[in-house]
Amino acid sequence: MWDFFHNVGAIVSITTVIHLVVVTLTIIWILSIKRDSTAAMAWCLTAILLPFLGAFLFWVFGYQRVYRPLLRKKKHKKLFRQQHPRRRPSSAKRFGHGWAGMARLAQRLDAFPATIGNEVVFFHEGQSAFDAKLEAIRGAQQHVHLEYFIVQPDDTGRTLLSLLCEKVRQGVEVRLLYDAMGSHRLKRQTVAELRQAGGRCEAFFPLFDPLRRRTQINLRNHRKIVVVDGQVGFSGGMNIGDEYLSKSKSFGFWRDTHMRLTGPAVADLQRVFVEDWHFASGEMLKGKRYFPDNSKIGESPVQVVMSGPDQELKSIREVYFAAILRARRRLWIATPYFVPDAGIHDALCLAARSGIDVRLLGLYHPDKWLPFLAGRYYWTDMLAAGVKIYQYSKGMMHSKLMMVDGRWASCGTANLDNRSLHLNFEVNCLLYDPAHVAVLEAAFLRDLETAIALDAATYAKRPIVYRAAENVCRLFSPIL
């Protein structure tokens, strides 16, 4: 019996020593690469409180700053931009209503120069957006470029892939770039027909890449882009799958915002795709075939901004922050995942305390409980500051919108959470036309008609179990 306890004690002692060594090395590792003190503290606590598991979680989810794939991405970006110099910005005089300064600031934050002469069409649900994409692809004469976070191997995905195969057989170049994590259900055999027909398919950041000795599941390409012949572009919140067309029983009605672009801004969506394609495939695309001289179709100013972990300064996060500070009358936001960093959190509370009409539309039926509960932790501060919070009850609310003073809006792929603003590759379109902003605001107000408005006093009385869960989940905020 004594030998048994002696052996158990020895095993415990050895395990404890190993754990202390692992925790110490992990904390040194965390502090050496995490600039944000909140994120560093959260990860250090995770490493201490979760023996061995904490170190593993940081290796999988937290280590995102200094590693080979991002260094390679930066080199590809530098090479691409050397061979594709950006054009000069449009005249600030054309913007009017005092927002030219925002366009200049966004460009200094690495956005593309704003362009005049675009036409924008919005889609507020999936079927109309998907039908418009299929129509544009059917009319393609030269090339079709697609970049998605999620491509599902369901009826919707097969419909798209079938059309792409048909276009390849007609002599149209087709390139499909999908995120390896988001599209993990998309197997090689699913896209085999497209490849056999002559189409090109590439996965962005493969999950397991033994040739480069890496396993990467954290930094994902969350962008959604379609460009046809360099003349028609689509972007917004919708991926490819039955759920986005409200055909999934799990999600029910799917509320999203997508947009169709024609005009000079399409070239910037094309640049985002081509840069990512160059990184994933090594193929450099340039010339008039891919960047035709797009004439002015309309009068709308549009500015494309992309961001990702390959940037020192996160462009979309900084644009959001600047827009919040610029608001004077109203600031309306729609996002399914709301897990703000300290700066965004304080800016929103300050705006509400200043008397600005700040409204936040989020989920009532969550698809991911961890970010949902983490986000609820911040609702208390928001409500206390005067932010009006609404929960969309009709189904899944997936729009990513920010609208300021009826004069400026951002529509794209980036949520108002740490994952979108610091970890993912994202792309947004900044809109400077009050007429387009009015369309988005009208849709937002319609959404509020079927939303549940939170009452601060009632919310404060929620069960203690929820409060405990929210406190635990918010510790994971740096990776959500």
Describe the protein's architecture and organization.
This protein has about 475 residues and is of the alpha/beta class. It has three domains: about 1-60, no CATH class; about 70-90 and about 115-300, Endonuclease, Chain A (2-Layer Sandwich); about 315-480, Endonuclease, Chain A. Helix content is about 45%, strand content about 20%. The chain contains 16 helices and 20 strands. It has helices at about 1-35, 35-50, 55-60, 70-85, 100-110, 125-140, 155-170, 190-195, 265-280, 315-325, 340-355, 370-385, 420-425, 435-450, 455-460, 465-475; strands spanning about 115-125, 145-150, 175-180, 200-205, 210, 215, 225-230, 230-235, 255-260, 300-305, 330-335, 340, 355-365, 390, 395, 400-405, 410, 415, 425-430, 450-455. The strands form three sheets. The chain has a 16-stranded mixed β-sheet that branches. Strands 5-6 form a two-stranded antiparallel sheet. It has a two-stranded parallel ribbon with strand order 12-18. Helix 12 crosses helix 16 (about 465-475). The radius of gyration is 23 Å and the shape is globular. The protein starts with a helix and ends in a 6-residue tail after the last helix.
In short:
The protein has 16 helices and 20 strands. The protein is α/β, with parallel strands linked by helices and 480 residues long.
Please supply descriptive tags for the structure shown above.
single chain, 480 residues, alpha/beta, Endonuclease, Chain A, 3 domains, 16-stranded mixed beta sheet, two-stranded antiparallel sheet, 44% helix, 21% strand, globular
